[in-house]
Amino acid sequence: MVQTLEDTNVTLLTGNEAVANAVRLAKPQVIAAYPITPQTKIVETLSGMVASGELDCEYINVESEHSAMGAAIGASLAGVRTFTATSSHGLLYMGELVWWAGLTRIPIVMPVVNRSLNPWNIWPDHQDSMSFRDAGWIQLYAKNNQEVLDLTLCAFKIAEHHKIWMPVMVCLDGFILSHTSAQVNIPTQEQVDDFLPPFKPLAMLDSDNPFAHGSLTDSKGIWEQRMSLIDGFNNARVIIPQILREFANKFGRLSGDMIEVTGNLDDSDVGIIALGTLGEEAENSLAVLAERGIRAITIRPRIFRPFPKKELIACLKKIPKVLIIDRAVSFGNAGQIAIEVQSELFANKMEIDLHQKIMGLGGMDVTYVDIADEVEKIM
What we know:
Elements: E1 9-13, H1 15-26, E2 30-33, H2 40-52, E3 58-61, H3 65-77, E4 82-83, H4 88-93, H5 95-103, E5 109-114, H6 127-130, E6 138-141, H7 145-160, E7 168-173, E8 182-186, H8 189-195, H9 219-251, E9 259-262, E10 270-273, H10 276-291, E11 296-301, E12 303-305, H11 309-316, E13 321-326, H12 336-347, E14 353-358, H13 368-378
Parallel strand pairs: 2-3, 2-4, 5-7, 6-7, 10-11, 10-13, 13-14
Antiparallel strand pairs: 1-8, 6-12, 9-11
Helix pairs in contact: 1-2, 1-7, 3-5, 7-9, 10-13
């Protein structure tokens, strides 16, 4: 049954507070945390919830992001639901263990509050999370604070599904979402408990039944492990839409799709592809483009890893021209979304008038009018 306003609490929350409230409802048993701008408010809020007794959880204050991921890995292997959060340089600092958690399939949920990397800058772009797109983590990108809360709840169910069993990043644009307040519909604990079952370990360390996990192995063992990870991502392509549909049926939000299409897909001149808040800004450009006589749609992937190949190609078959907006760069090539789209077009023997644009790096402001102007240029 879809929830009503009487069943929920609609309130103003920042994106960071939306994460913290989703985590409270998910009831992790261990949180390992280290602060970094603009993520700090997430773990600060959760620390207060634990201190007040609102959240029954072991909160581990560590000396670095590297230690935070190490503690999260250890807790998950001990058989409990585990959470951490980070941003930018903190993500880089824990990088060794981010790869360790991904390649050994540890079901940790970790929001990444997107922030630019060097030179020193605290403003948002996607270079930090995109640097780990191949690290074995599922990646979700939220467009607004409501979706931050919703995707964080879904992330726990995705990570812990026994046919997936992989870590999940929930990416939200720093300051644009993390520090900006918006109306957020918070579900009740009973509703979340009905959606998200208790943590059920697929494997856990047991002194009575010892085994090695992530130990030194030979090339055959590496190959088997990598193939297992590929299987996990292939399973995720099937299971994630099912989880999103279940969430949509219970809460009336999220469409149940790995991508969100806004506009008339069957009657459009051009499509705009973008992640996160740029995707929502692109949605707001559609009215401006309509006034200029351009029929446009937006195609916003909620999920970047695994890449929503089938869903995207189904859309691209119906539109003659596409503008891809990336908020990060794969240096020596192009933006990461553009690279992925070009690869899928080639694999499907499709030709399309494709244009790519890098926008919003280091927090540079991008408005719906800016996006409309870029679309008009390619028309």
